[in-house]
Protein 1
Amino acid sequence: MIFDSFGAAPGRRVGLRALLVTLAAVGLLVGSAPGAPAAPPRTAVTAAQAPAPLTGAQLAASWSGPLSTRGRYIVDAGGNRFKLKAGNWSGAQGTWEGSGDTGDPANNQAGQVSHNIPLGLDRAPLGQILGDFHSLGLNSVRLPFANAMIHDTNAVPDSAVAANPQLKGDTPLQVYDAVVKALTDDGFAVVLNNHTTTYRWCCGLDGNERWNSGQSTQQWEDDWVFLVNRYKNNKRVVGADLRNEVRRDTWDDPNWGSGDAHDEYAAFEDAGNKILRADPDALIIMEGINWQGIPADPGTLFPHGRPMLTPVRTLSNTLIASNKLVYSAHFYAYTGPNFTGAASGAGHTNDWPYEKFPLDQLKQLVDDEALFVTQDGRHFTAPVWISEFGAAGRDETDPLEQTWWTNFTDILVAHDTDFSVWPLVGWADSGGRPQDWALLSYDAGGTRHGLEDPGDWRAADWNKLVNAPGTTGPVARTPRWNMLDLDFGDQNVSQRMLDRPDWSPGNSKGSCPDTERLIGLARGDGRGLCTDSGQPARTSGDYVTVTGWNNTAEGDWASGYDKLQCPDNYFAVGYSEHSAQSTALLCAPAAAPLPTTGHTVWFDRGDNPANAATLHGDWASGHYKGQCADDEYVAGVADTWRNNEWGVPDVLLCRRLS
C-alpha cells in the first residue's frame, strides 16, 4: 500500500531514519501545505439494486483460465471479458514496522501481527473469509508476498492459524499454498504480487524499494520462476504482479529505460519473459514507477514526483507473448502526482494530494498517469489494473477524502476499469471496532465487521463500482502493435529465435514476437515497430538472415544506397544494427506467395507517413520514423554512408500482403 514514499499516512508509522539523515545533511526546509479549492458537497450515491453475490460454484462456472488480453481488455480462455474485481488480501508480505519485537502488536502495522501469512487466519476459518469475499462481489484476489516467505522454513505459530487448525505446523509458504488452493477452488482468480523483499511493512524507506533491494535481480527472477512453476498447473492462478511500488531509496531513483541496475523497464521485461518461458499462460503485470526524486521544496530545485505509467507513452514493453501484458497503477486520496503523502516533517512538500484536485483535473491526472494506456491501436495499448486504491471507513470524517472516494470510483466506473481495493482483511478490536481501511475486519471471536455494517460511508460507492455495467461477453481480436528498443543491446522477443544461435553476432538485434512482423524502423536510435495486423501465415522453415541485396533482377528501389532485402515470399521479422548502422534483416518464410511489387518509404528527412508519431503512438520519440501501411510488410531497408549519414536506416521497401 502507498502510505507514501517517504512519510507516513495519517495514523500509520513508516521508517524515516535514512531520509531524515539525508534531508538534514542538505539542510532542506519544509513548508506548509497551500490552500486548495474547497471540496464540493458530497452527494449521497444511491446504489443500484445489487445482484445476489455468486457462490463459489457459480463463480467457478462463470469463467475459465488461463487469462490473456485483447486490446484494453482481459479475457478468459473462451475469449470473454474477465474484469478483475479484486481486493488485496495482505499479510504474507509482513506487517512488522522495522523495530522491536516482531510479535508485539505495537510494532506491527495498525497493531496487526500477520506472522507473515494472509491476515485473519487466526480469527476466522478460510471458508468463512472466502464467503465474505463473495458477499463483496469480488471475482479475484491480489495476494501479496515477500521474497522472504519463499525461503522461510520456520513453522508459523499455532496461534497464527488458530481458526484454521489444519494449517498448524506449516511454513508461511505452505500456508500461502493452502490459501491459493482455497481461493481457486472457490472460483476466485488469484494474482501473485511480489510486495516486498523482507517481511518489513511497505512502503517507505524500508529496504524494499526496488526488485533488487536486499537481493540480486537474479535472485528475484529465480524466486518468480520458482513460484510460477509451483502454481502453473492451476489455471486460476492467473498472473504475476512483478513488484509493488518501485520507488527511490535513500540515494538512488528507479528509472524507465536508462539501461542500468535501477532500470525498471528492462528488469520487468526480462523477468516477464523468463516467467513466460516457465509458464506461457501467466499474465505479466507491471506497475509503473511509484516515486522519483527527493521530496523537498522548491520542486524546481528538487524535482520529485510519481511517474507511474507516464513513461510507457514513448517506451512500452514487449513480451514474447504479446497478449499477456497488463499495466497497473495505485491511487490514494492523500498522495499526489508530486506529493508523498507525508502530512508534515520530512517528505512533506507544498504539492497537492489527489483529494485536493477538482474533479476535471483529477480525471486528467488519472488518464495521464495510467488510463491513457487503454487507447486502441497504440504500441502501448494494454489493460490497466488499478491494483491498489482505498480509503478509511466509518471513522473517516474528512470531506475531501470522502469526495475523492466518490469521484475516483466514478472514474473507474466511467472507464470500465479493472480494480483491486486495499485492503480486504483486518482485525477488529474487542469492542467490534474494525480496522479502518479494511473492507472486512474480524474480532478475536471470529465475528465479521466492516463495509456491510451500517455506518460505513464507503458502501454506496463500493456497490456502485462492483455492480457497474461494462463490457461483457466475447471480445473481438484487434491488431497489436509493439515496439522494439536497441538502446542498450538486444531486444529479442521471438521465442523461436531465443532457442536458436545468434543470428547476427556482434550486433544489437531486435526481433518481433513470433506472432508479429516488422512494419517500421526509426532513423538512428535502434527503435522498431512490430504488428500482427493482417499477419500472413508462415511455414515452419528456417528464418533467413540477410546482409546484402541479391534481388537485383527486380530493379533498384534505392539507387546508390546499400540495401538489405528479404528473399521473395519472405517478410522481415527482425533487424540488427551496429552503432545505429543497419547490418542485417531477419526474414521469415510465408506459407503462401506474397506480392513482389511495392513502393519505397523514405524517412531521411522526416516521418513517413507524416503522422507516424500519432498513428500507433510515438515509438521513437525525437527520431524520424518510417512505417509501412497496416496491410503491408517490410521487404527491405536501405541506408547510405554518403553525406555523413553513417549507415543509419533511410528507406523501407514496403509491399502489400495480398
Note: The CA atoms of residues 554 and 596 lie 8 Å apart.
Protein 2
Amino acid sequence: MNRLADSQSPYLLQHATNPVDWWPWGPAAFDEARKRGVPVLLSVGYSACHWCQVMAHESFEDVATAAYLNVHFVCVKVDREERPDVDAVYMEAVQAATGQGGWPMTVFLTPDGDPFYFGTYFPPKARHGLPGFLDVAQGVVAAWRDRRGEVGEVAARIVRELQERTSSAYGVAVPPGDGELAAALQKLAGTYDGEHGGFGGAPKFPPSMTLEFLLRHHARTGAEPALQMARDTCEAMARGGIYDQLGGGFARYAVDGTWTVPHFEKMLSDNALLTRVYAHLWRSTGSDFARRVALETADFMVAELATGEGGFASALDADSDDGSGRHVEGAFYVWTPDQLAAELGASDAEFAAGYFGVTEEGTFEEGSSVLQLPQGNGVVDADRVASVRERLLAARARRPRPGRDDKVVAAWNGLAIAALAETGAYFDRPDLVQAAVDAADLLVRVHLDGRGRLSRTSRDGVAGRNDGVLEDYGDVAEGFIALASVTGEGVWLDFAGLLLDSVLHHFAGPDGTLFDTADDAESLIRRPQDPTDNASPSGWTAAAGALLSYAAHTGSEPHRTAAEGALGVVGSLAPQVPRFIGWGLAVAEAALDGPREVAVVGGTGDPLTAELHRTALLGAAPGTVVAVGEQDSTEFPLLFQRPTRGGRAAAYVCRNFVCDAPTSDPRTLRSQLRAEQWTGPRPS
C-alpha cells in the first residue's frame, strides 16, 4: 500500500495498491521533490473515468513503468472531484498549451508546482499519433537533467501567463438585457442540430444549463423557437442510447452526434440537472414523455446513488465485468439478439429488438447494441413493453454491476436536492421530497460548520479534508432555497443565507467578480476563476442564481447587487459562446423578469392553501420563488404583513416586495404568473 491508503476518495483508493509510489496532493510531496531534486508527475482523474482506468491498468499497474517513475519523479495523484481547484488551474494550462483537455490529465511540474509539460491519456507504447507514456517520461527526465534552465524558463512563462488572465477580460459588469439574451438565442439556433437535437457535433453532451435557459426564455418572452429546441433535444436524448431505457438515468455523454452510443458512466450532477430540466419541460408543456423521464431519472438517483447517510454518491463507473473476467466499458448495459432471446423467448425477443433498436450488426462493439427508443415505433402494446422491460431489468441485475464512487460531493447533492424537491412537488411524490430533505440534513450535519463554511466531500458520514469551492456554496444554497419553497420550512432559507454570506465575504472580488476558491484557501499557481459552465453550472453563475433567489425571498439589497454584478460576465459572453454560459443565461432571464415572488398565506392542512401553493410552484416565470405559511408566520420575510382574504387562503405575486392584488383563485394566480399578465411595477 502506498501513501494513498489513508485517502477518503474511492478514486485514490483504487491506486493505493499500485506499484507507483503515489503521494496525495500536499506540501509534503513538493518538499520531497525539492529534497530529491526531481520533477513532480501530477496525474488527475476521477473514479468513473474510463480512460483513467485504462491508463492505470496499462501504465500505473506495470511494475517496470512504476519503477522508472518512482526513481525519477515524485508522483502525485489527485481526484478532480475532491480538488476541482487543482484540476482547474492545471487544466487551464493543458488547454492553453495543447488546445484540448480531458482526463486523465497528466502534467509534469517543477518542485514549486509550476507546469512545464502537458498531456492527457498516454498509451504505454506509441500509437495513433500519441507518444508512449514511458517515452514521454524519459523525455521529461532528459530535459530536466540536461536543460533545466530552459525548463524553468518555460514553467515561469506559463505561470506568468496564467496569472495575467483576469476576469477583466470578460468585459463590463452590467447584467444582460433583452438584446443580449435574444442574441444568445440566435447564436444557439445557428449551432443547433435540427435533425438530432442538441448543439454541435460529436461528442455530444447533454446541454442541461442551456436547456434551462431556453425554457426560461420561452416562459418570459413566448419565443416558440426556444421551446422547440428544448423540447426536441429532450426527446432525442431520452430516446437515444445515452438514456438508460431500462433503469432510467443518463450517461455522461454520447460519443456520436445522434445520442446513440454513450460514454457509459452515470454522474449524479448530470442526472440531477436533467431531472430538473425534464420536470420543467413538463411544467411548460404538460408532456407525458417529459414527466416519465423526469420521474424515472429521479427514481434512478434514489435507487442507485443514495447513500446510507442520506446523501447521494458521485457516480457509477462506465466499465464492469462482462461475465468472463474482462473489465469492459458498457458491459452492464448492452444487449445482443441472442441475449434477448435467452431472457425473453423468441417472440418477445423479436418484439424487444424492434422496440429497442437491437440489431444483428449491433450499434456498439462486438455485435452488441445500446438500447434506444427509435422514432416510429407507432402504437405498441404498453403491457407487453412493461413486461419486457421488467424481465430485462431483472436479468441485468444479475450481471456484475459497475463500481460506485460513494463519496458525497456537496455541490452535486445541492443540485439533487433542488431536482428531487421540485419533481416530488410537481408529481405528488412525497418520497422524493423526503429524499431531498435527507440529503439537505446530511449536508448541514456533516458538511457545514458553525462559521457557515462547507467541506467539499464526505464519505460514510465523515467530512473530507478539502474545503468547499464556490460551486459548493452556490449549488447547495440553490438546493436549500428550492427545498424551502417546496416544504414551507424557512430554516432552509436561513441555511442558504449562511452560505451566501460566506460567498460575499470570502469569494467575491472587485466589480462583481467571483473566485472559485475562498480568500483563505490554499494558494495555487493562480487563484481559479472561471464563469463558464462545464458539466454543471460554474460556481460563478451558480452563486449568482442563489444570490438572486435569496434577495427575492428576503429583499436583501446586498445580495441583489452581488447577483447583478456577477451577471455582468454573462452579458459579455452570451452573444459569443452561449453554450458555455447557459446557467448564467438562465439566471439572467430570472433577473430580467424580476424574479417573481409568491407569498401563499393560509392554514396548514387547508386544501385551498395547498392548491395555491402547488399552483405557485408550477408557475413557469423564470426563477420564481415561493413562500408558504400561516398568516403572521415568521418563517419567511415574504409572508410579513400578508393577511389572508377574509380568513381564506390568499396568494400574493410580487416583484421587489411590491405586490399585485392578492387572490384566492388558483386560476387567477396561474394567470398572474404568466409573463404577459404582469400588471405591477417592473424592477428598476
Note: Residues 236 and 421 are 26 Å apart (CA to CA).
Protein 3
Amino acid sequence: MAAPKKGRRPAGGQGRPGRALALILIAMVALTGGMFWSGHTTPRLGIDLAGGTSITLKATAEPGQESAINETNMNTAVGIIDRRVNGLGVSEAEVQTQGRENIIVNIPRGTNEKQAREQVGTTAQLYFRPVIAVAAATPQPVPSAKPSGTPSTPPTPTASGKPQGGKSATPTATASTQGRALTEALKAPSPTPTGSASPKTSESPKAPATPGASQTPDPGTAALEQKFATLNCLDPKQQASAGKGAKPTESTVACGEDAPGQWSKYLLGPAEVDGKDVDEAKGVFDQQRGMWIVTMDFTSAGSKKFQSITSKLSQQTDPQNRFAIVLDGQVVSAPSVRQTLSASAEISGSFNQQTAQDLGNILSYGALPLAFETQSVDTVTAALGSEQLEAGLIAGAIGLGLVVLYLVVYYRGLSLIALLSLAASALLTYVIMSLLGPAIGFALNLPAVCGAIVAIGITADSFIVYFERVRDEVREGRTLRPAVERAWPRARRTILVSDFVSFLAAAVLFVVTVGKVQGFAFTLGLTTLLDVVVVFLFTKPLMTLLARTKFYGEGHAWSGLDPKRLGAKPPLRRSRRATAAGPVDSPKEA
C-alpha cells in the first residue's frame, strides 16, 4: 500500500488564509478612500427621507381633440417623463398618474433637481418647417416677397454657421429660445463655401416666385397673413402663444429670438420632418470649434424626409431657402440650406454643457403626446420620513441587539467572529451605497433601509450555518483545526444555495416592481452579494486563523467549541498497523 503524501491539505482546506483577509482588507480601505476622495461620505437620500419637490401636471387638449386625453397617451407621457428625469441622473423619482388627466412627479432633493423640474412638463414638440417669410418682430406689412439682403430680413446662418448679408450682420449663432442661445449648422457631406447667398448648385438660382409645394401656404390664407402682419414678437404673451397648437400639416406663424432681446417673426409652411424622425440627440463638445453643440441623428425614414426638404430648399433664394427648427411653437433656429443634406444635423450656438445636454435629453426621449399645464409645485419636507426612519432604525437596532445577545449566549467565543463579520459587511454596504449615489443615482429610501435591516438576518444565518457544521465535526471527535476545514465544503454549499435564492427573489422583485419597492429589492440583492464576499474572504479565513490559537484550538469553556459541552465522542484514532503489516495467517493455515 502506498504511503500517504506528505503535506496534503484536508478537504476544503485553505492553506493561506492571510491572503484572503489581506485582499478584503485592501478592498475595504480602497473603497473607503474612494468615498472620502469623491466627497460623498453619506448615501443619497430619497424624497421620503431628504424631502424634495412634488409637481402636479394637468393634461390639456385643443378644442375638438379632448379624446386625446386617454389612458394610452397618459401612460406614454408617464414613461417619457420618467426617462427624461432618470436621464438626468435623478434616481428614485416617482412619476405616476392621478385620476384621468393628472400626473404627479416627485423629485428628491439633490443633484439636477432644478433641471428635472424644468423638463418634466416640457412638451418638446419638434418640427422642421420651411420658411416662407421672415420679418422684424413688430407689426408691419407681410414681407413675403422680400429679396435677399432686404433690411427687414435678419442675417441668415448658412450650413457652415456663418451669416449671409451685410458686413454689419451678426450671425444667428447667438439666437436663443427662453434664455437658451441656439443656432443651427447642418453637417454637410463636403465643405461648404461661405460668403455667398447663392445656392450651391451648378444651375442658375431659381426665382422665388415658384417655390416648392412644401413652401406654399395653404390656399386662402389671408387670415394667416394678417396674423403674421399684426404679430408682435416683443410681447411675451404673443411670443409664447404664436406657434402653439398649429397642426403639422398646416402653415403657421412663430417667433424666434435671434439674439438676447432681439426677436423676429416667421411665416412657416407645413412641417416636413418632426421629432419622431430623430433617432438620437445628445449634447457634445466640439473640440475644433471649442463650443458645446447638440447633434441629431435621424432615423432611416427621417433621413429620407430631411434629404427631400433640403433638396428643395437648396434651389431657392433667401429667405425661402431656409428651414426653421420649431420647438414647442418657437423657432430656435432658421438656417439656410445650400446643398442637399440627409443623415444628421447639429444645433450650435452659445450653449454651455448643461443647456446642451438638457436639449439633447429632451429630444432623445421624444415629445409628450399631450400638452401639460403645471397645476402646482410643492416642496416636500423630510419631517415625516425622518420620523419613520428613526422608528425603523430603532427597530433595526433592537433586532441587531437581539442577534448579538443570541450569538454571545449560545456561541460564546465564536460570537467574536460573527460580530467582526457583521461589522465588515456593514462597512462595505455603507461605503458602496455612498459611492453608488453619484455613480448611478442610487438614493436610499425607507424600503431600502428595510432591505438593509433584513440583510442582518441573512448575514447572521450564514455564520450560524458554518458554526454548526464545525460543531458537528467536533462532536464526531475531531480536533478543531481539521474540523474547521472539513466543515467548510458542506457549509459552503448551503450558504451559496441560500444566498442564491435570496438574490433571485430580489432580482425578480426589482424587475416586476416600480418606484420605492425597487429600492428594497436593490438593497436586498446588494447585501446578499456582499454576504457571499464576506463569508468567503473574511469569516472562513478568520476562523482558520483563530483555530490555530490556544483559546479556540484547545476548546476553552468560553470558546463555544468545548468538546465536553458539545457532547463530543472519544477522539478518532486511526491505526494503520494491521494494514501495514499485511494480513494475519489463520491458525489453520499455520
Note: The chain has a mean pLDDT of 73.
